[in-house]
Amino acid sequence: MKKIWFLSLFLVLCGFGATVQGQSVPNVRVILPERFRVLTNQWFDLRIEAENLSSPTARVVVDIDGDNKEVLNFAGALEETSDNDSNSSTLDKAWTYRKAYFATPGIKTIYVYIVDGRRIFGVATQVSVQQFNLQSQKSVIVFIGDAMGTAYRDASRIVAQSTGNRFREGWFDELQQMDKMPVTGMSMTYSLENIVPDSANTGSAWTTGNKTINGALNVFPDNNDFRYAPSNQQATKQFALDNPRVETLWQYLKRRHNYKTGIVTTSDVADATPAAEGAHTITRSLLKDVAKQYVDGSINQGNQFDVIMGGGLEHFNARTVSNSGDTRNLVTELQGSGYSYVQNRTELNAINNSNTPNKLLGLFRTGNMNVAYDKLGLVRPTDEPNPDFGSFTNQPYLDEMTEKAIAVLNKNNAPFILMVEGASIDKQSHPNYANGQIWDNIEFDKAVGIGRTFANRNAQALANTLVICTADHDQSMSIIGAVDTNVTNAVQNVISILPYANGSRPNGNVGSENRIGETSGFPDYLDLNGDRYPENTNRFKLKVGYRTGDHTGSSVPVTAEGAGALLFYGYFDQTDIFFKMAKALTINTQVLDEALSYKRGVDVPYFSPATQLLVEKLGGKNGVKVTMLENAPLFAPRLMKEGENFCLDENDKH
Question: In what order do the strands lie in the sheet with 183-188?
Fold first, then answer.
């Protein structure tokens, strides 16, 4: 490795030390974020852009300084391109070192020198490289409730866990699966350029450890992005697929440690959140190219996952030159690579211990899968649309997909990393469909229960399995209270386009119309078949409201259990999730796990009264027969009577 002082002396002696006055200064940049972080031997593309050059023979010199001295390693090609930027009247060049990596940990300073004729210009940036040395083959399951902020968790808990009078006096008899995980933290979700993120850049944050721009999957923007035109996609998509990339943890563990990898989702499998584990593009809209990358690879070669389940069938078997640039059938190609292919719930649930495949592809419909509310056959309220199943009437539930995915990935006790997404928590929240959204959150929690059961099957399993549950970002739903649906014109869901509470009307009066039906007390949801999916035919229901139809910049909860779970305690950036997962795989987590076990042993217990006290008993004292009655509630909540009007204050009489 050249020393910095030696490089400078070399350039001066060769006649490059002097600058020519009167010439404009070029714009030189290294395409890495300011706080770029990677693991040892994690691949990334190092792109250097120089614009407004004076010499067509301009060249680049890269030098590395910092902890554990080493050269810039790169396992791929060095690409040199020109005419990249949007200014055709000036000379520009870009140099991209594909699959660069650092083999040793520490803070590395990358010095870049552009030799432009007789002029030399330099820039520098730093990279934090964190040690990865796999200690034992632990497995990781990441549950992503898309848009599942705090209020979304609360809503699904109230609806699902209030059945059978199990939510009384402000207490639940039983919490959700995600609530039972012993460690809780909070994750900040801001993107590289925006307070409010989307699912692509947030997915990239926990899969690569780095921030990028909204809409981008595991790549950073460069100066030829403007050449991509959605209206002429096939001819210009090369400019959306050539950006500097970062290897994901899924790809890293498969390449370096032969891990099994998987993605399970209720969305299109090429959608942003599942794509974040194994695709690279500056725009998430290139769904068919994402599907092709699952098969061919992107930063690394070959099949990216051992399990793929969700929707998006058309990206695999309905490819044409006009929509994809090829006519490949990716389903048959994957089958030829050893994947078992299932197309519906019946075929999926036919997998058992005696016929568990080594690889599994499940594509259960085109587009996004139908939501749990509709799969259950529940009746949609009038402000939500009726379902359209098309010919795909036999779709599995997320917990069923999760159970089979774990069985395939863990076959023969293989270590694995799996992402499971409840996608329509977000997709139903965008149009403010509260029922579709809440029941999908309940379905998601059932899937979390499958992961927790796998991790807790014995002490050894818990010591070698990390389960994480979080969200990519939040949306704007708020919990308002309870509503009596028997009240005429009662409003259960205050959608974002309607005024609420003290919002002004055009005539200047106070807008109270959306408070009709509000009441005190708790919901009375029914679960007649005992599946913990309420039938939604009860009278007193949860009332919610949405402020927007889009994402928000709020921080989201993170809950964790198993090996190294205590690492997820506290308030941290979303990119830290990547490094915390890596840390749990790198260190012996026994001390952390024992500390967590001790904390659980001495913490305040969750008191649950004995249920037998609530049934009728007979007792006797001094020969007097006593009839035991069910204890009356502490107070009888006031319920709005049918037809009763609600007044905001004394000046708002009805």
Answer: 339-342, 359-363, 307-311, 260-268, 416-422, 139-145, 465-470, 556-562, 183-188, 570-573
Q: What is the pLDDT of residues 435-482, one digit of tens each?
A: 999 999 999 999 999 999 999 999 999 999 999 999 999 999 999 999
Which tens digits make up the pLDDT trace of 132-148?
999 889 999 999 999 99
Helix, strand, or coil (residue 598): helix
Do 108 and 195 have their domain in common? no
Quote the CA–CA distance of 434 and 495 in Å, as a whole number: 9
Q: Is there a domain that residue 225 lies in?
A: yes
Beta-strand (E) ranges in 488-634? Answer: 493-494, 503-504, 510-511, 518-519, 540-545, 551-552, 556-562, 570-573, 618-621, 624-627
Contact indicator for 542, 158 with CB cutoff of 8 Å: yes
> Is the model's pTM score more than 0.70?
yes
Q: Is position 635 within any domain?
A: no
Average the pLDDT over 23-27 and give the result: 88
- Give the integer Cα–Cα distance in Å for 99 and 62: 15
* Same domain membership, residue 159 and residue 277: yes
Asked if 586 and 131 count as a contact pair (C-beta separation under 8 A), the reply is yes
**Is there a single domain that holds both residue 517 and residue 594?**
yes
- Work out whether the CA dihedral 551, 552, 553, 554 comes out positive or negative: negative
Question: Is-contact 127 102, C-beta < 8 A?
Answer: yes
Q: Is residue 623 part of a domain?
A: no
Please tell me the total number of residues recorded for the chain in this structure.
Answer: 654
pLDDT reported for residue 77: 94
Token code pair at residue 587: 């260190």
Cα–Cα–Cα angle for 275, 279, 285, nearest 5°?
65
Full domain range(s) for residue 70: 4-130
Q: Name the domain count of the chain.
A: 2
The model's pLDDT over 96-135, given as tens digits with 9 standing for 90+, comes to 999 999 999 999 999 999 999 999 999 999 999 999 999 8
CATH number at residue 19: 2.60.40.10
- Among residues 343, 145, 143, 370, the alpha carbon closest in space to that of 263 is found at 143
Region for 192 from its dihedrals, namely left if φ exceeds 0, alpha if ψ lies in -120 to 50, beta otherwise: alpha
**91 backbone dihedrals φ, ψ, rounded to 5°:** -90, 135
Which CATH number belongs to the domain containing residue 579 in this structure?
3.40.720.10
390 and 449: one domain? yes
Tell whether 167 and 245 lie within a shared domain: yes
Residue range 1-17, pLDDT digits in tens? 444 444 543 444 344 44
Among 574, 601, 628, identify where a domain stops: 601
**Beta-strand pair 540-545/465-470:** unpaired
Q: How far apart are CA 396 and CA 370, in angstroms?
A: 10
pLDDT reading at 170 higher than 50: yes
Q: Is residue 617 included in any domain, yes or no?
A: no
Q: How many other C-beta atoms lie within 10 A of the C-beta of residue 148?
A: 31
Q: Which of 130, 156, 186 is the last residue of a domain?
A: 130
The 10s digit of each residue's pLDDT in 597-619 is 999 999 998 888 876 554 444 44
